[in-house]
Amino acid sequence: MMRNKRARTSVDKAVVDVWEREVGGLSSRNFALRLAASEDLVLRLDIYKKLEKHRGCVNTVSFNDDGNILVSGSDDKRVILWDWETGHAKLAFHSGHVNNVFQAKIMPCTDDRSLVTCAADGQVRHAKILERRVETRLLAKHQGRAHKLAIEPGSPHIVYTCGEDGLVQHIDLRTATATELFTCRPIDDSRAYMPVINLNAISIDPRNPNLFAVAGSDEYTRLYDIRKYKWDGSTDFGLPTDYFCPPHLVGDDQVGITGLAFSEQSELLVSYNDEFIYLFTRNMGLGPNPPARSEASEIGLDDSAMEADGKAIPQVYKGHSNCETVKGVSFFGPKSEYVVSGSDCGRIFIWKKKGGELVRVMEADKHVVNCIESHPHTAVLASSGIENDIKIWTPKASDKATLPTNIEQVKPRSRGWMYQVSTPQDLWLHLFSLQRQGSSPERNGENSAAAGRELLELILTFNANSDASSGDGEDASGPEDLFS
Length: 484
Hints:
By secondary structure, the protein is of the alpha+beta class. About 15% of the residues lie in helices and about 30% in strands. The protein is built from 7 helices and 29 strands. The strands form 7 sheets. Strands 6-7-8-9-29 form a 5-stranded antiparallel β-sheet, with no helix packed on it. Strand 18 and strand 19 form a beta hairpin.
């Protein structure tokens, strides 16, 4: 009689791994990698420390290459470098920005003395940490908010940046030269109300730094190859080498993208607002000339059709809510074994990359979690959101966590946050968009009160943003701005 084979548990696997290491069947390096990717560690993640010095929402957290320093930026316009293990703030300085800092990163191979930042004022700035002060200077400018920048892996000099003006720029810190590569535009004329794609995210492939991806206020992630750019400006570089989009979202003008991340295996992770997170491999691209909305419906471009044709479809990750803010998305684990994201419900969600199984949900903010940053070498996470602190997570819990039973399904909200509304022209464009959406057949019969609320939120957003100012030039922080 055949016995049913008992499923191997994580404890069984750990015992086998230890035995293999002891008898020489598993190297110490591979043993450490397997341990760091263990689901058991994920289930034991707990708050190790809260880093509290900022006086506003913390919009960005990032580790240096060694992993011993965490840098953060906030609505208080300050940048802080932390010794996250002790919770001690090593250095704080004014960024030079005149509006909320959206991203701050330490340049590699600079002894942690060179940083780049971008902000809601559209500026991209360079900070140099000197012996007794910090000097900041303006590198580039966007018309509208600049949400994200990307550093060429291993380079102390090269930075890419994108903004809500659709512009992508390449910056060389050696000469402080910003080169305008291209302005991202819609693929066809069906969205005349959107002259450019408001870009929220940019990411560089770590295995091939010539490739970078951008995404924003439409359904496509666009992949570019910097080698095709002619530095004398003799070619039009604005044509992507590939496009990525889940088949059922092609032609959907109600979605946008808030976060991008490349894995160490060159997989592309894409987080949609009011939708889900998707994982693409290189062979899932739509090519350099994706079908327009009408063409997609004519040829039946959807998930079921592609499965029937034997084509790969992207892995999907569900359960979180991404409606309120511009959220990032990230991988976790030494070989990107997990996918992590914040949520409008104030929680962190962790899925297995392979298969998309939700394995962990953690309470992390009273309001919204926007940023999740994985440590480069060990099982540590940093998170931030609407609250003024940063939370460091390590696998220190004595008991393994279980999934909560009250995972909320938050109703999608207005997408007004996706766009910069700070000039009369911006307001006019969005009013035109609302009129177009309201007259579309699929929206007939909807509650007119909802449309009124959307219009009210748009006007309030315009009033809130119209008083934002911008400044140029250099800024220096004296000793009174710093502490250690």
